[in-house]
Every structure is written in C-alpha cells, then in structure tokens.
C-alpha cells in the first residue's frame, strides 16, 4: 500500500495561506491520486480532475467574474480527500 493521500492536507493549508502556488497544488494532488495504492476508483479520479480544473479556471478570473470561488474549490478538495481516504 502506498498512501499518497496523507500528505495532501498540508498542501491545502499551505495554499490557503499563500505559501504554495496553484500549479504546485494541482500537480501534487494529481500525482498523489494517480500514485495511490490501492488505486482509487476511476470516478474519484474524474471528480478530482473536475475540481482541479475548476480551481485552475477560477484562478484566471477575479472572484466576482467567476461562477465558483477558489475557496469553494479548496473546500471541495478537502471533501474529496475525506471521502477518498475513507475507501
């Protein structure tokens, strides 16, 4: 078993505090999900990719002009992580 997910909460905290760039956050999350053993179900990979893509898109716009907030997407990542770790 290779638990790549246990390091992810620290990345969320660092990102929230401006200590981790978005590109590093998304790279770390994608690599962790892909390298986790046992493998996560495909639907978990799909949902994670959707949330990460929305987070990347939100970064291109101001908070007012985007249909979803960066904070909401970070909260969605936290929720995804809780569910993935419960598998």
Could you walk me through the main structural features you see in this protein, from its secondary elements to its overall organization?
The protein has helices at 8-16, 22-35, 42-58, 70-85. It has 87 residues and is mainly α. Helix 2 (22-35) runs antiparallel to helix 3.
List descriptors.
globular, mainly alpha, 64% helix, 87 residues
What structural class should be given to the helix and strand makeup?
mainly alpha
Q: Count the helices. How many?
A: 4
Task: Kindly state the percentage of residues in helix.
Answer: 55-70%
Biggest β-sheet description: none
Oligomer kind: single chain
Form type: globular
- Rg for CA atoms: 13 Å
Distance between the termini: 13 Å
List low-confidence stretches. Answer: none
Beta strand %: under 5%
Number of strands: 0
> What's the rounded overall pLDDT mean?
90
Strand and helix order? HHHH
């Amino acid at each position: 078993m290779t638990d790549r997910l246990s390091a992810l909460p620290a990345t969320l905290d660092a990102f929230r505090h401006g200590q981790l760039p978005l590109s590093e956050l998304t790279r770390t999350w994608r690599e962790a999900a892909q390298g986790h053993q046992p493998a996560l179900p495909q639907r978990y990979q799909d949902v994670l990719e959707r949330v990460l893509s929305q987070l990347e898109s939100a970064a291109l716009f101001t908070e007012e002009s985007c249909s979803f907030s960066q904070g909401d997407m970070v909260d969605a990542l936290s929720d995804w992580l809780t569910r993935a770790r419960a598998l």
